Amino acid sequence: MKVGDALTNKNLYVEVINRYEMDRNTRTGNETFWEETSMKLKEKYIYDEGSDKITICYEPNRKQDNTAIKDFCYDYGIRLEDFNISVIIGENVTNCSHLLTGCKNFNQPVMMHNRIINTWEMFSGCENFNQPIILPDSIKICEAMFRDCKSFNQKITLPAKVVKTTGMFVGCESFNQPIDLPENLTISIGMFKLCKKFNQKITLPDNLECCDGMFVGCSDFNQSVTLGKNIERCWDMFRDCISLNHPIEIFNVDCVCNNMFQKCSALQPEMVTVHLRKTSNKNIEKRLQKMWGMEEVKSNVQVVLEALPPKKKVSSIKYCLTANKKYEIKKQELQTATVEELNAKFVGFYNNQELSSLEMTMETEECSKTLVVYFENKKICISIIDEISNKIYYYDSGEGDDSIEIAGNIYPRHMITENVDILRDIMGDFMQKGRPSKRVQWIVEKI
Fold first, then answer.
1. What is the longest distance spanned by two Cα atoms in the chain?
2. Which of 308, 314, 336 is nearest to 430 (CA)?
3. Whole-angstrom Cα distance, residue 139 to residue 158?
């Protein structure tokens, strides 16, 4: 589509830029005009009528921002859904989130440079888009990049730096290309959701932790999948995969797999191998019921029972009372006391406003870690010092939308807390596991 016959001020735009560059060292008396004009124009785009290409030359400052394309459509009297011109991403642009969102009929090449980091929902709703595309190595975020690109069916190579692919191809009804998942990938929620034709071999990387709903509604999908020991959640992973009947193995004994095989009508139970902790038959049945999302227990599921690892013990506990008296729990008491008993001891000190600081050390074969809790004006600041990696894990005061889960409860992510129950949960996690729980999103900073 050519728009050269439409009313345009883009030639004026190029002329102003050229004059600005030529006169910037000699102009006087009108500098404010030039500076304001330059700043305004840098938020726009450049359209080359000869090649019928648009260059995006601004950096959006909001998550949902495709101002350049909207401005172009406004300037040339085009509906956003009818935009269909080849796009070049300017060298200064690193954030392409929502760039072409809503451009239903867009189906042109897009040139991307190697400084782009964010492509969140870049082509969301581009129903006709089906062009070859090369993703630069610099990209880290490509969540929902091709959401509802119903015609898209091109081979994609994911950059090594990508850590999240949540909803990347959701609603790509035609997509059926081989794809390698990068080793750094940790979260892939709903990556292929509603990709009805997708049926390619997938190897899940070792670092992957969450793949909830990854293949929901992939009606043609029928491949073997192995879920490694680091995967903690796979809710609804294969729900409505009506063709699935290949071996599936789940190695993490604590993986949350609710509704994983719900409505997988072709799947035979013997195709599924689940690794579980040694426990009662009743508990095993409950786990299997949740996996299929039904009350009836599936028979013939291959269950591998694994023994619980030996419990780790805290090797040292020191604490300081407000009177600056330092104490240390004797080894004999440490060997016999339960987590609940130790917590009760320090909760008593805390309630009496006697506790100034608390230090617990966990010795393992690999390293030594220390949990340090400071009390000041009834507020608690918690940190974990890992002597081997020289990092400190801590909670800090502040505001934010993120949250953390501790012992099944949701709390603000950044905090100094007055709630002793939070302290008890954190202390319990540490004493039982000897490491920052993966259920808790610890903040990491170098000392």
1. 89
2. 314
3. 9
Confidence of residue 332 (pLDDT cuts 50, 70, 90): confident
Burial annotation 145-163 (CB, 10 A radius, 16+ → b, else e): bbbbbbbbbeebebbeebe
CA-to-CA distance for 205 and 180, rounded, in angstroms? 9
Beta bridge partners of 373: 358, 382
- Answer for the pair 384, 370: CB distance below 8 angstroms, yes or no: yes
Residue closest to 6 by CA, chosen among 57, 78, 54, 66: 78
Q: Hey, what are 418's tokens? A: 């007055």
Residue reference for tokens 């709390």: 411
Tens of pLDDT, residues 334-381: 777 776 677 677 777 777 777 777 777 666 545 555 666 666 544 444
Output the pLDDT for position 422: 55
Cβ(242)–Cβ(266) below 8 Å: yes
What confidence score (pLDDT) does residue 374 get?
Answer: 62
Kind of pairing, strands 86-89 and 302-306? unpaired
Amino acid at 272: V
Contacts of 141 (CB under 8 A, 6+ apart): 117, 118, 119, 120, 162, 163, 164
pTM over 0.85: no
Q: Which residues pair with 412 in a beta bridge?
A: 403
Cβ atoms of 165 and 207 within 8 Å: the answer is no
pLDDT at 325: 75
* Residues paired with residue 443 on neighbouring β-strands, in sequence order: 394
